[in-house]
Amino acid sequence: MRIGLVPGSFKPYHAGHDGLVAIASRENDTVKLFVSLGDRIKPGEFPLYGKNMREIWEKYLEKAVESAYPNVEVVYAVKAPVSHVYDELKAGDFSEDEYTIYSDEEDILKYTDASLEKTAPNLFMKDLIALRGVKRAETVDISGTYMRELLAAKKVKEFSRLLPAHSRKYAQEILDILNRQVEPVVSAGRAKRQKRPMGESLLRSYVREILR
Question: Which domains does the chain have, with CATH numbers?
Answer without folding.
Answer: 2-178 (3.40.50.620)
